[in-house]
Amino acid sequence: EVLSEDPETAFCTLANREDLNPEEGSIYQCLYQFTRNEKLTETNKLLCDVCTQRHCGPKKNLKSENYVYTNAKKQMLISLPPPILTFHLKRFQQAGFNLRKVNRHIKFPEVLDLAPFCTAKCKNVGEGSSKVLYSLYGVVEHSGTMRSGHYTAYAKMRAMNSHLSDFVLRGQYPQALETEPVKGQWFHISDTHVQAVSIAKVLSSQAYLLFYERLL
After folding, report:
1. pLDDT under 50 in the chain at which residues?
2. Out of 3.40.50.720, 3.90.70.10, 3.40.350.10, 3.40.50.970, which CATH number does the structure's domain 78-214 have?
3. Element (H or E) spanning 66, and its range?
């Protein structure tokens, strides 16, 4: 869907992303790179219908060689923060004709603020709010290689978030924003083995999938 936006606000975010200064090798850096402002020039220029009509008349009577292309800017931003936020980290890279697993540790927080990656006109955000906070509740980890390995999980046992339930079922969210992670006990699950672990153990894991729930 193409929308005509005010050029002064089209690339504005809910919170200033330039103040973020994301740490190298972190989930924030991944999000920062994914939502960066891109310039479309040369062979990536954008077909401009307005420019084409201005110079050549109605587009329907034109041949493709008469279309007018122009430089443009592109940015991927979040317009509707979900109740449950899932990250799937790319854990492979091309090495010649083969795929190789990426074993690098990606840092991720217990409480994540999505606001620097949301559009300024973001929906489902309280009026005047400049934060969109999420609390970590699950991690999937893979050990091994591209050919073989083992999946384990970290999960937080916690009380039901009634505010989140109201948000999912009725679209209602309170104006008072929670800023602390949901309290609970973390467990490491490997097949039939379950063991209580600390949050430090969870945050040091080599995450493959990350699961966050909205703090409301």
Report:
1. 1
2. 3.90.70.10
3. none
